[in-house]
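Re: that chain you flagged

S.,

Sorry for the slow reply, it's been a week of failed gels. I finally had a moment to sit down with the sequence you sent. For the record, here it is as I used it:
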Amino acid sequence: MEKILIGKITSAVGLRGEVKIYNYSDSPDIYSTAGAVYVNDDLMNVKSVRTQKNMVVLGLEGIADRDAAEKLRGREVFVTEDDLPELPEGQYYIRDLIGMEVLDSESGETIGTVRDVIQNTAQDIFDVKTTEGKQVLIPKVPEFIIDISLEKKQILVKLIEGMRE
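Prediction finished late last night. Pasting the structure tokens below so you have them in one place:
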């Protein structure tokens, strides 16, 4: 069973044992739908979930006061693969894309492998390490991304001239 990192506890909130979490996932809903989370290696049931500004605030069973919550500061929060919601067609988890082979759709030549997905732009950008050891950034738009196959662990792309330099 693989654990997926979804956040990190940054501080205690209030006096009732709630903790504030820096959320790594797209949605805070994952905390309530999972029902339980791993705090480092300890499985803990979720009592309550709310948001405060851009942070998630969790109430966890067994954590009843501020002192107990403070002891969790700095710990990472995980869910299991089974807790991840199924994504709509055409959407993928970044963890599934990293390591995928990137192929030229016309020649079939291997361009490289995805080492990261940059998400702070208008569209996602694949950070690809080429077979020559260089970096190529490929926007995840239909003009460049022809097909993504999770089964084959391959992404077919059509690059414009000069993109690989």
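What I noticed first: The radius of gyration is 20 Å.

Talk soon,
D.
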